[in-house]
Design a protein that fits this description.
65% helix; two-stranded antiparallel ribbon; mainly alpha; 16 helices; single chain
């Protein structure tokens, strides 16, 4: 409830938006119209909301046919990102004074295998594809064009990022005013901006969404198969011809492919056929194994010390990981729906999703605040994953969660404003 009070406990409304089937909108002092979404049908209820406000109002007015599994999976993915960057980042200062954040995954037996599940960027794009497919269907029924669809999503993505960058510009300006010789915050705190690559790539995918959704209506699964074929051909060209520049093309194509998997899921409901979901899971697993055992790809789906990255450029291994995770989503969705039917669980899911962009943008800043406070108190950041370092992981998680919650309460209102514009 503290977060609700910090945001003024506005009334809530459901509507189409980025990253959700029907995005979580906070509308101050506005009667609520509940949008009930379905792959082919949309109806509007003009019921007046109860006296409840804030998150409780949104929980109370959740449409009965909303697929809570998608919201729950997005919340889980966001939590994994925050915990991973906090617990699994060996963050320290280099001699230059800048922060570095390698991870000690290479020291964990079979740690690389865990990344096939815990590298959640593919899941974000799958969920995004599902959301955009549902929202595009709703937009077309309302008569909105592609331009309006893309513009609203880009604005809602860009506004929280703009406030994030503006806040850091203020920090940089104050630092220079106090000490003109000080290194720019955009250099020493560069790790705080790493999550923005995801936002930029997702923005490109959203811009292409109307085109890709149109192709899906005509060719269905053929779009996914075609994209994977093009990716494989370009990867063969990049690796065989030692043409690094091809990665600039394959990177957005891979994320378009992953997004298209979400579109396919939205129109096929893989979770209703466990045999099919299991088959997709096995297919993805086989593709990953073939890629890392017989192919040139690193077994880890996150960058490791001494290993090659599958993210920059984004490789076919990430596309195969997305197929694997699509199957997993189909398998776990029924259980997630049952779990999310519990009010306490659903309220937690709603809370995380309502501030998804804020958490994504600011969680590394929250972690940095905790690190700087530790240094100010005389602590020295470890550069090796010793037993003592591992023992402090729970404490660092709690400290970083506290600072991240604080900045989310402070800046989350700007994300909500973007959703209501």
């Amino acid at each position: 409830m503290r977060l609700e009070r910090a945001l003024g406990a506005p009334h809530l409304q459901l509507g189409d938006g980025p990253g959700s089937q029907a995005a979580l909108w906070f509308v101050p002092s506005t009667p609520m119209a509940t949008i009930r979404t379905h792959p082919t049908v949309s109806t509007v209820s003009t019921e007046q909301p109860s006296r409840a406000s804030g998150l409780d109002a949104l929980v109370d007015h959740t449409p009965p046919d909303r697929d809570r599994a998608i919201d729950a999976m997005r919340a889980i993915a966001i939590a994994v990102v925050v915990v991973w960057h906090t617990v699994m980042s060996l963050t320290y200062r280099k001699a230059s004074g800048t922060f570095s954040m390698p991870n000690p995954l290479d020291e964990i037996p079979l740690g690389w295998a865990a990344t096939w599940v815990l590298q959640v960027m593919p899941m974000f794009f799958i969920v995004g594809g599902f959301a955009n497919a549902r929202s595009w269907d709703s937009s077309r029924r309302r008569g909105d064009g592609a331009g309006h669809f893309v513009r609203t999503r880009i604005v809602r993505l860009a506004r929280p990022v703009a406030y994030f960058l503006a806040a850091w510009l203020v920090v940089d300006a104050v630092s220079f005013a106090l000490d003109p010789t000080r290194v720019s915050a955009f250099r020493w705190a560069f790790i705080a901006f790493v999550p923005l690559w995801f936002v930029g790539m997702y923005g490109l995918v959203c811009a292409a969404a109307p085109l890709m959704l149109g192709l899906h209506r005509r060719f269905g699964i053929g779009v996914v198969v075609g994209l994977l074929g093009v990716i494989a051909a370009l990867e063969a060209l990049r690796l065989g011809g030692d043409l690094a520049w091809v990665g600039v093309v394959t990177t957005p194509l891979v994320w378009l492919f992953v997004h298209q998997l979400g579109v396919l899921y939205a129109h096929s409901d893989l979770s209703s056929d466990r045999v099919c979901a299991a088959a997709v899971t096995v297919l993805g697993l086989v593709l990953i194994v073939l890629a890392v055992v017989f192919g040139p790809y690193d077994a880890s789906m996150v960058a490791t010390r001494g290993g090659s990255s599958n993210l920059l450029p984004t490789t076919a291994a990430i596309a195969f990981t997305a197929v694997f995770q699509l199957g997993l989503l189909g398998l776990v969705a029924p259980g997630l729906r049952r779990l999310a039917a519990l009010r306490s669980v659903w309220k937690a899911v709603v809370t995380v999703n309502a501030f998804a962009m804020t958490i994504l943008c600011w969680h590394m800043t929250g972690h940095l605040i905790a690190l700087l406070a530790y240094e100010r108190l005389g602590g020295t950041l470890a550069q090796q994953a010793t037993a003592a370092w591992w023992a402090t992981r729970p404490a660092w998680l709690l400290a970083s969660l506290a600072t991240t919650a604080a900045v989310t309460a402070l800046f989350g209102r700007f994300e909500l404003a973007a959703r209501t514009s």
